Amino acid sequence: MSNGNYEWIPFYEEFADSLLKYKNNRKELIDKIYKCYDENNIQIATLEGDGASKSIFPFDIDPFTVFALFNKKISDDNRIKLVNIFKQEFSLSSNAPEHFDGIPLVNNLSATFYYFSDSRGDKDIDNLWGVFEAALEISKKPNEIAINKFMSYYDNVLKQKGIKWKITMGLFWIRPNKFINLDATNRSFLEEESHLSDTVANKIKNLKNPPKAIEYLQLCEDVKSVLSSYSFNYKTFSELSHEAYTQKDVNDSDLPVDGLGDEDVKTTKYWIYSPGERANMWDEFYEKGIMAIGWEIGDLTKFKSKEEISKALQDYYNDNKPHKNEVHCLWQFAHDIQVGDIIFVKRGRNDIVGRGIVTSGYKFNKGQYYSHSRTVQWIDKGIWSMKKNWDERTKSLPLKTLTEFTMYTHILNQIKDLFEEEDVESMKEYPSYLAEDFLNEVYIGKDEYFTLLNLLKNKKNLIIQGAPGVGKTFLAKRLAYSIMGLKDVDRCMMIQFHQSYSYEDFIMGFRPSKEGFELKHGSFYNFCKKAEEDDENDYFFIIDEINRGNISKIFGELFMLIENDKRGDKNKIRLVYSDELFFIPKNVYIIGLMNTADRSLAMIDYALRRRFAFFDLKPGFSSEGFIQYQKEINSSEFDNLIENIKTLNEEIKKDESLGEGFAIGHSYFANLNSEDIDEKLNYIVNHEIIPLLNEYWFDEPEKVEQWSNQLRSVIN
Questions:
Q1: Domains in the chain: how many in total?
Q2: 619: helix, coil or strand?
Q3: Which of the residues 238, 342, 470, 618 has an alpha carbon 20 to 30 A from that of 377?
């Protein structure tokens, strides 16, 4: 028996039954949903658009989209709040759940089961109601008429835009004991023969696209039969789904990860890959659901460095060449690609022929020519020519077998634009991050944290200013994470202002193209559009070195709109370079970072000060967190050095030409451990602190020498 909590099942099933009565009265259903949100002062997601990126009040809705309102990537607190609101509004007798083990969640940016009215078919929402009604009917009293009705509607729904595997998630929500969830996590779990059976595993592996109705219903019966016949820890579809997500969490914990400087945050990477010369292995790899590369040098996990791979390739080719490209490709294939990464398949220099999601780690297949492989859920297959899309920056696709191009956003966006459905199903799960985590990591007190929180929440624009090394960047990201409740790097963006940064970089402007010049959107414009589509969640835009840019020039006409009371679609303004009416969403928060010790910059103007709240971040040597950190290091030299730095900061504070804004921050001494502490302290003092003092007191060499000698004496 699984150790999960499935108290959600009775509530979900009763809620599904209650929705059926609105099949022919959808306006009342929409009104009830909006009433739930309005009366509880909650921002509802965009449920309908007018074809011009504008949110409008919906005139139709399907029952699966209603379920998606609380089965997407929001915090459990918000999920619990919503189910309690719906329980009351729809007069449900089942207890509102507080645990949601095994429930698949849709992507926040594609949480409706239909496209907006300008892009969907006339019968799309009717078909969703049809399959919903038939699913409930066959779960209660299966009969031939109901099953045929289900199959007809299900197959029609599969043809609709934006559905694919999502329909199996919706069916699982409404009847989790009848219909199996086939999201990416569950499919990856079922592909392993040891998790169920080789028969089921082979069926799942052969699914290149969502199964048609007859195949899906048979798969549900096959899995149910295996679950009842063998002694697995999971006996139901919900328990199986919970086990799949639990296994995924365990497997992901061993993967190399990165993202905005946080090692426990996994971000999606994008790769261009060639399956053989001119993609000659593409059809075979597509059918097998894999990506693979050659070079028969053995299991790549046995090599501890690129140098070892290079030596193996020299033995393989019997030469002394470095083979840099091959070495890099093999190392990346084995170590850098992650589960959840997106693969674009290329043929030649101009054609994209497929797209998929990586679903497994590296595998070595001894004796095969293409012996290095990973399983991939292939989403698209066809031919998409890039030839017409190239600009002055990009003339063709890379020649190499494997290339990561996550950071080359202009190429990535050009390739994404080829596909009708830009977003493929995400497999990312972000680590939880709460106020307690913030206070454990950031060296400020609890009162200061809540002051920061209230300033940002109330003003929506905050500038954190402080001396070098007080941890402004570190704090800003973690402040955002603590408000979100998780380290969701997709909702947090950082840029850096400089003297050449302009409105064209920030909002929009004309850029050279193959045909001459074309209008390109800037970082803040794109970020606001992304936040607008996901208006139930907060988004954080962090600007490092905010006082290095010409603020008025960069923000342009949007300078007024960043004010708290000027947010939202009721405060649109026409942009300079286009006829578009633009607004800054209410869920966007701006955090600026400013170094108070930078003499080259003038004070920021009053217009900016009026629109931002300001917080002075001071060195945290006396905070509870830093004191505990000192105890863990357990070094008398470290303790003595910190006491001397505190005294030095007092002298800097009293200096009329410097002041508190030039104090030495605690970040210089962060992330140390007891090993080699003497060597590390020697480096910090001689190569970081003393050069800083030389800059501070360039006209007082005696003072620099005095403090240099004093600090060196402590560590020597």
A1: 4
A2: coil
A3: 238
Whole-number Å distance between alpha carbons of 302 and 326: 17
Q: Are residues 496 and 449 in the same domain?
A: yes
- What's the rounded Cα separation, in Å, for the pair 131 and 217? 13
Burial class (CB in 10 A: 0-12, 13-18, 19+), 226: middle
Greatest pairwise CA separation for the chain in angstroms:
96
Rounded to the nearest 10 degrees, what angle do helices 213-229 and 237-252 cross at?
90
Domain boundary among 599, 617, 635: 617
Q: To 5 degrees, how large is the angle CA 48–CA 49–CA 50?
A: 135
Q: Which backbone phi and psi does 272 adopt, to 5 degrees?
A: -105, 130
**Do 654 and 588 reside in the same domain of the chain?**
no
Question: Which amino acid belongs to residue 651?
Answer: E
pLDDT tens track for 582-598 = 999 999 999 999 988 76
Residue of 622, 630, 623, 708 whose CA lies nearest to 670? 630
The reply to whether 497 falls in a domain is: yes
| Domain containing residue 675 | 624-715
d(CA 221, CA 231): 17
pLDDT tens digits along 472-504: 999 999 999 999 988 888 899 999 998 889 999
Does residue 561 form part of some domain? yes
pLDDT tens column, 325-380: 899 999 999 999 988 899 999 998 889 999 999 988 999 998 888 999 999 988 88
Q: Are residues 68 and 172 in the same domain?
A: yes
Do 543 and 634 lie in a common domain?
A: no
H or E stretch at 314 = helix 306-317
Looking at residue 426, its amino acid is S
Last residue of one domain, picked from the residues 617, 638, 659: 617
Claim to verify: residue 401 and residue 518 sit in the same structural domain: no
Co-location of 607 and 643 in the same domain: no
| CA–CA–CA angle 428, 432, 438 (5° rounding) | 135
| Residue 78 maps to a domain | yes
- Residues in the chain, total: 716
Same domain, 481 and 566: yes
What is the side-by-side order of every strand in the sheet holding 461-466? 492-496, 539-544, 588-595, 461-466, 613-617
In the predicted model, is pLDDT for residue 263 greater than 80?
A: no
